[in-house]
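Section: Multi-chain targets

For targets with more than one molecule, the full set of components is provided together so that the structure can be written out for the assembly as a whole rather than chain by chain. Components appear in the order listed by the source. The example entry contains three components.
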Amino acid sequence: MVEFLTSQLGVSIILALVVIGVMLGSVAYCIFFERKIAGWVQDRFGPNRVGYRGILQSIADGGKLLLKEDVIPGHVDTPLFILAPAIIFLVAFVGFAAIPWGGQLQLGENLVDIQVAKPDIGLLYILGVASIGVYGVVLGGWSSNNKYSFYGGIRAAAQMLSYEIPLGLCILVVVLTMGTLRLESITLQQTEYWGGILPMWNVILHPLAFLVFLITALAESNRMPFDLPEAEQELVGGYHTEYSGLKFGMFLLAEYAHMITASGFIAVLFLGGWHFPWIAWTQPEATAWYAVIAKMLVLAGKITFFIFLMMWLRWTLPRLRFDQLLRLAWKGLIPITLGLFTLAVILVYVGRQQSLPWALLGNAVVLAIVLAAAGLSQVEVTGRQANLPSIRPGPVSTGTART
Amino acid sequence: MILATLEPYAAIGVTILVVMLITAAILVLAHVIGPKRHGPVKDSPYESGMPLVVDTQRRFNVRFYIVALLFLLFDVEIIFLWPWAQVFHHAATDGVTIPLENGGEVGKGFLLVGMAIFLALLVFGLLYEWKKGAFRWD
Amino acid sequence: MFARAKARGSGGLSAQAKACGSFRIAILLVLTGMVLLAPTGSVAWATDDAVTAEQQIGVTGAAPPGGLLEPILFYAVAMTTVIAALGVCIAKNIVRMAVWLFIALGSVAMLYFLLAADFLGAIQLIVYVGGTLILLIFGVMLTSKSPWVRFEPPKLELIGAAVVCGALLVALCVVLYSAVWPETEGVVPGVSVADLGRRLLTTYLVPFEVAGVLLMIVMVGAAHLARQEK
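Its structure, encoded as tokens over all components, is:
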């Protein structure tokens, strides 16, 4: 038994169970933090009644959803109506399996990886799982037999498909630079330093690719400013309009789980995963248990940062229009990522893929081209009509109407 | 115990099983615990409180279909880039050459040209679509 | 389209509906054949099935090193595939058919993973499940006017389809039993992604570039479909 528990397989299975538990807990608390951050942005308190400063709010929410009626309206396609939240929930909680959580751990004589699975195609595994997620949304929208749900589902599908292409091209930039599809090797290669000081994180090497990746990750998890599928002002609740009780809760939890996986993915690809520079405990050589915990905390910190960023953006940015959203993907992000891909190919060809000045110079050139092209073709990409009058703040009303 | 090629996926299998169990448990629990009351209003599609005048017409803009079509094309093109990216990286950085069946070998230049032709076709297709107005949604 | 066909009665099915019906029956028969052949295939499992001609991977020899778990997994996934494919044939509602097809294609991806063809499995998920099937669902939703379209092809079409499928089944069986399967000893490692890339740009360079040309032609075609009338 002990032999099995200290083997790679045993550790992987234990880790999988632990991560599922932690994910379930943290998605519930993500909802609490989202509301707290909304309160902070809008200068109010947010939930503060249940427990100390509202800390038990999520548990109360879960309990409430559980006790609510699980309505299956008479007009829906019942099997698909139940299947849709199940698919989306399953996909959201399976994608994280390829993320390396904490490097390697020395267990007796074994050196085990703190990772649920390390397949040869790690990156493609996550992409493959993510591409199934579309079904939950489309089926949810279709089976509800409701106009709003249906349009929400169709919108979500078109949006997720469109942003998958720049996402793939961005990841290809990293793959070209690193020469591997394994997430643990990608992390490991980022633990070296330029000049002994600056960590070789991809965000420093390819800042543009990082930005585009962040945007596509927002769009893939249907977050503001890309939350058109559930735009409540036009579509009530989008694809989950007809859902209630815990089925609605599953859609909600899946969205936050999606955010966590996406954040983890960004952290591993561009921010060195569990690596924190200049600290001995988070270097690949450190394999003691406390080092592994330190590494996990570093990765958790990075993930928390990105989740905070996503929430902050949600309460700050207005929503795009759907034609703008599609245009941004096809006329904006895809050409940019093709340019970044070409840049990466050139850098690799001349053998300078890890050279900071070359990479930054290339990024500057791509940025200059993008800005020039955007200036020349504003109408093309933003959809703004050239002959519209410019929007200027008019004279402020003196308040006569109010008296 | 488990085939070597399958071992990376063993823990994923366990993950999928556990999450499936959790999903089923949630669905069953929610169904059992909650109250059940049906009524004609509750059973009709929700339209912000308005009475339903027309049935759900599942007609939508054909442009959504075009988006899916274009996505599929680009997706297939990108699939070819994944294996190439790895091989090209090793050929360019480590100087690995690929042996041919006729005894010769090719290096990074060959790989670059091979993919450049393929990508040029992709970019040509993209520009053609752009010119033809496939990406106009206004 | 389907709604109109239904309104005119079973005699007046449109061309697409006819083709679709025959296709369903075709799949049904091929799958029935596969289920019938499964017992004979189980003997061959350890030597033949795992080593497909193009992948040259999998388990060979009398005793598979994976023990019992491997065949159990294989049969579980294979049965899921067959059941889901039967579901595609039996379902009357078009979107339900698409859902069954989703399960069938997903299980085929699992089969690829079981055969250690990781890359192929991921591609199956990304391209077929995540792309083609969505396109199909969009197409179905575009063409069907009513959501609850029932789909029942007439008897004559069933018979015609049965003949075609029977022929296909016989042809497949002949190929399956007359083919010479490569035999290898022990565990053969799966093909890595880099191997695939190497082959793609050397041995299969010409087909690869031809595929590029084909994709470009399809893109041009799609551009004409998407063209705006202005």
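DSSP finds three helices and two strands in chain B.
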